[in-house]
User: What shape does this take?
Amino acid sequence: MLVLGIESTCDETAVSVVRSGRHILSNAILSQTDLHSKYGGVFPELASRRHVEGIAPLIEEALATAGVNLQQIELIAVAKGPGLIGSLLVGLHVAKALSLALGIPFVGVNHVEAHLYAAMMATGATIHLPAIGVVISGGHTLLTRILGVGHYESIGSTLDDAVGEAFDKVATLLDLPYPGGPEIEALAKHGDPTLYAFKPGKIRGNPWAFSFSGLKTQVLYAVRKEPQPMSSATKAHIAAAFQEVALGDIVHKSLLAKEAFGAHAILLGGGVSSNLRLQEMFEERHAGRFLHLPPTLLRLDNAAMIAGLGYHLLQAKPGGDALDLVPMTRMPLCSWAPSPVTERSSV
Ligand code: KG4
Ligand code: ZN
Assistant: This one.
């Protein structure tokens, strides 16, 4: 089955053609970072306008790269949330229009769930379930137990900022452009992480919850204590110390959850999983052999993960979604698979 995936939740317009949930024929992405970098974050109204301009040519590009035409597409999958309302509406309306015009079904996909699915598709490796899913992106930070595609048990999430958001905000404090994650990672390579004693967020009575706003405030106070303008060496030390604590918290809780919830593997997804220091930290804790990451191009926002997961959703919901489906700016990670997997299995 050929699925056309559409992603427009935030500041990337993306279109992809995926065969039967796994085989990526094209993965076109139009990034808007040039548009938002001067604001230090995403400017929602500008994001929606850029989606409107970019989406039709991107569909043509994705079809051409895949070597297929619209009439061969059998399902449209679209990210229905969570995300920015104006941005979501663009993708959703295009998906509905294509579905109507072509007489084929469409399904709305949870963007956060798709980040986890990205680690399951196209890897070639067998993943033993249950696994711990770790979504670390600009909008989300959560831990979940994965029993199968479409079957999850929530463990914990952030109570305030997402980890990627913390990277972006700390980058602003260090005068680095948006998106801050890759900038902090690059700068941290030249810094000594032991020179600032930052502490991870702790939530009394909940070992699985994350909090990054306190860490961000510790960085703010450290910056204020330094003579201005800060030297690039000072910035590098702060970046390294922040990164070590923020990522260390994720590695620590993921490994603890693996033990506590009897999981066989850890699946990472979302933009922050691109961070090489994060992967190194998992390896330092001997987690390399059961750690599954999406292929590089599927770590940041993309439509291949939407098309891939959409294929599975259609199996559970023949006929797809109704045309009155509305976008959701907030959206919990819910199970939808008909039968939970209870024994050890694999994908
Ligand atoms: O998954 P994503 O593309 O979008 C959301 O769904 O939010 O993630 C974007 C986030 C941004 O906050 C960005 O700063 C962060 O991922 N990010 C990184 C790295 N690359 C992207 N954070 C840390 N290290 C990186 N190398
Ligand atoms: Zn995302």
Q: What stands out?
A: Residues 96 and 269 are 27 Å apart (CA to CA). The longest helix spans residues 232-260.
